[in-house]
Structures are given as C-alpha cells and as structure tokens.
Fold these 3 entries.
Entry 1:
Amino acid sequence: MKILILGATGTIGHQLAEEIVQGAAHVQLRLTSRRTEGVVRLKRDFSDAEICKTDLLDLASLKSAVTGTDKIMVVNPDLIDETRACSNLAGAVGQAGGVTHVLRLLTYPPGLTPADIKADARDIPIGFNQGINARQVLDASDMPLTYVNVISSFMTNLLWSAELVRTRQKFVMPCPQVQTWLHPADIAHVCAGILVDNPASHIGKTYELSGVELISYDDIAAMLTSELGISIEYSDDEALLQEMFGEDYDLSMKYFECERDYYANVQATNVVEQFSGRQPYPMRKWIRDNAGRFR
C-alpha cells in the first residue's frame, strides 16, 4: 500500500507521517512539499519515503504525485485557492486512476453554510471559509472521500503567545471564549487509523474531531502559572495583540471574532477515544511537555 500525504511539512501532515512510519511498517509513503526547503526537511526526516515537490495549484505537478498511490491524505495550507486546488486534485485522481481513498482534513463548525457567514467575513482565506469552499468542490467530485473535520483549537496555537509569556508574563489571545483543544498528535492518530483501514468502512463519512475539556483562556493562564512557577495573566490587550500578530492583526481579529460566534454551540465528540481507546491529550500535559518553550 502506498499513501500520499499532500502537505507533509505542516504540523498535522508531518505527525501523520511519523505515526504511519511507527505503526504501519507495511505502508510505503510518498510525501510532498511545495517548497524546496520543505523537500529537504522531508528527505532528512523520512529517509525511506518517496519525497517530491508538488504544487496543489499545478495540475501536472499534482498528477505526478498522485500517480501510483493507493490512498491520499490532503492537508491544504491556509491562504490557498481551495476551489482551484480541490478541482486539480479531483482531476489528478481521475486521470491517474487506482486511488481507493482520499482523506481530507477540514476545520469548520458542523453545519455552517456559506449563507451563515457574515458578509464582511466571506473573504477571510483561512479556517471555516476554506473548509466550506473545499467541501463544496470535493462533494461535487466522484472521488472516494472521507472527511476529518477538526472542531477544536489546536494546542500548538498557544505558541503564538510564547514570547509574550516569556517577556511580559502575559498569555495573550483575542476574543475570550471557552472551548475545547486538541493535540495535533491526536488528529494524526485518527487520520492514520482511517488511512490504513479498509476504505469501505470510512468512505462517505465525516468525523468531527474535538477535545473533551472545556477550557477558558484564564484556565490556560492558571496552568501556565502552575507549570512555569511564575505568575502568568491572561490578556487581550490590543497593543499586545498587535505585537503578536503583526501585519496579520486585522485579518486575525476578524477571524477570531467570527470563530467565537460560529463555534459557540459546538458540542464535544468522542471520536478520538473511539479510534485510540483513550481520552484526548490533556491541555495541562501539553503545557507541561512544552514548558521550556514558554520560559
């Protein structure tokens, strides 16, 4: 079996490759990056895998990557033209033949439709807009599809504030909310389980993935205080947010305001436990494991 991971240098794609290498020795991997430095990194980290430079917006490049593979994992980056990228994927899979399963990672609130998105937020090129745009194109194709839709925030997003924790003793995030969080390793584990399994068990399904702990930003600040041994306060001070996000400040604020509203009533799921037999990775453990990055 040969599995293609499109976007293998990203957090999820890279962890998925590691998960498959460790748990499914019979699987051959083909890993892609759109950047030369990404190809170099993948060759260093996965010496037994096939590595190729692939641009999702270039059909010829994508067809070359798809040809000869059995299953495909798609992790598209933010700020990409999803309509074009997904159309190219459908074209490449159709021309190559032989693909038995395509797994696509999404991030948008269950049930959200284009009509639900505020008019001034429809041009946000990340998160929920990308997920909805991708799904519209993919659903119209005849590919053997499964979706993993992550409806929690990624624990790794806390690292955006690491420098401000170190220098100001402030945990900074916009738009206070109570939400669930997921470790990327849990996402990768579920995706690996789907990919190495019989496709017939998963094609046509959507798995909504979430953490199970409802956690506020004040809770996170308290955990940082406990694990670092210094007092850390939560802040959504505008000046600190501008410092953290830089030139992406306006776009980030618009996105987080919508995220707070759209995810307000999203319910936690037990999908991680179904696939792994355990609860998702706890937030406190993640902070403990990564405490050095905040010091």
Entry 2:
Amino acid sequence: MKTILLACSAGVSTTMLVRDMRVVAKNKGIACEIEAKDVGEAKRMLDHVDLLILSPQVRHEASIIHNLKPELPVYVMEMKDYGALNSEKILENALNLLED
C-alpha cells in the first residue's frame, strides 16, 4: 500500500482535499493511505511516505525536500486544481508519479 502525504503551510487547507481524495481512491478501488500535514511535519515524515504532494503556497520547499530525500517523488499541485479542490485530478497525477 502506498502512502501519499500532502503538505501545505499550516496543514489545514489540505484536510478537505485529503478527505475527498480518500473517497475517490476508495471508489476506484485504489489502496493507499493519504494524510495531510504542515510542511514542517511533512519534512520529518519523509522516510515514511512514497509520495509528497505540495500545495502551491509551499512550492518553494520542493528543492529543499529533493535535497533531503532525492529519491522521493514530489508533486506540486496546480493552483487551479488546489483552489477547486479537484481531488480526482490531484490523485490521478499522484498515482501517475508513483507508477513511474
């Protein structure tokens, strides 16, 4: 089972998105764990996740995280998908990264 972690500046705005992504994953029969944390907590969890998704407001953290754990795929959400809470599109992009 893959573990996907979403990170934003405070961990609050991604909570709704995670809830919706879990529903989408369940409806599609995709076995994965999806969590949301603030970016500071996310950095402490890098060894325990298969993919990190960053919200647009913390996109600058991508290079820092890459330096901390180069093998970890990091995906920065598009602002339009984040703003619209397009959980299906964000999950689809995440799963495509995990397949590569």
Entry 3:
Amino acid sequence: MAKIRLQKIIADSGYCSRRKAEQLIADGLVRVNGRPVTLGDGADPKTDIVTVGGERINAAETLRYIKLYKPRGYVTTMSDAHAEKPVTDLLDGIDERVYPVGRLDKNSEGLLILTNDGNLANAIMHPSHKIKKRYRVTVRGDVNEDKLLTLASGVKIDSGVTAPCTITILAEEENRTVLEFVISEGKNRQIRKMCEAVKLEVVRLKRSSVANIKLGMLKPGEWRDLTEQELKGLFSQLGLNAKKESK
C-alpha cells in the first residue's frame, strides 16, 4: 500500500483537523513507529504506529456526521485538555472520536457540525469553497443605513478586511435590533469584531445554518446524525463523494 500523508491519517482518525495536524507535525509532536517525522512524511495506517504526544492514532472505522445545538458556555476548542465545558461532553453514546468543524466562541450558540471525516472538515473550512453560514445576531446601538452598508461592504478588523456579506434587519425593538448575517468566511470572532468596529454591542449570537445544514428544531444541547439527504446536499456543494461507511 502506498504511504498516506500523516496529516491526512491524523485528520481521518477524528483526532483533529488536517490544518491542526500539520501544526502538530511541525511542533514535533508526531511520531511513526517511535521515530520523529516532518511535514510531507507518510505512513501506512494499517501497519505503522502513529502517535501524537504519545497517544496512538487509530484509523477511523465508521464515519460520523453530527449536527449539534451548541449552548452558550461551551467551547469548541479541542486543543485544551482542561477546557471547562468542551462541546464533546454533550455527545453521550458516541463511540467515534469526532471534532467540531470550525469555531463557535464560548458566548455564542447554535449549529455546530462535528465529524471524524477529515476530508469533509477540511473542505468546509477551506476558503476556496466560500461556504455560507447564517447567523441571527441581536445588537444594541444605533443601527443605521451607513453602518449596515459598512458591515456588508467589509470592515477592517484585527485579522484584515472582511469580505462582502449580506445583512438583513429581522426585527427592531426599543433597545435592540435583530440582524441576520450571511457570511462566507470563518475569521476568529468575526461577527463580534465587525459589530464592534461600527460601535454595535452584540447581545446574542446564534448560528442557524452552515451550507445546506440547518439548525432546525434542535434545542440547546441536543444533537443528531445528519440525514442521508443532508449529507448528499453537503457533499454536492463541496464537490466530494459521500463515503459508504458513514453512519
């Protein structure tokens, strides 16, 4: 069997994303049969022993694709072993090691996709696919046409100028306004920083969809496997072929 790139083996196992796996290799935390490796090295997952920080990586046997309503207070980072409330604590009865696709900060809530399919995770997060994500955002402050135009056109935040997006007013109340953001980027805390740039305070932020996957009727803390129809639509958008061994 031809050797497979180590970052792919690690990502396919559900340990982390391919990008994170590359960082782990660069940091010298990955070994094959006890020997240190470098980026570009490969291995045979059936015969070689791949470890990360001393922990053996096992090839994923059953692929899982899950959607979860992340409540506020939970974190999506898997790199912090001491995180107070990792979202994976909500997945009772899951034998496979799945991980979140993308970020949703501690104070935000809503749709989160989790999987052990590294190819899918990498495709969703890759900027070239421009996957649309929809958010319901409640803000305090004066929402006027100038601010909406600025937000939609792109604003400068610490990680650069945001790409054009779509913003719609859903409701206007006495002290707050409910907006819908549709963005195709995944910068860290992007919407919060965008609002801060135009002097709007985010009171609540809820993600309602990623690509064709919608939060639907899930309640905070609830999850379910994606349906065959949801998976078919998602893989189609990404130009990928669904794998038969998925559950």
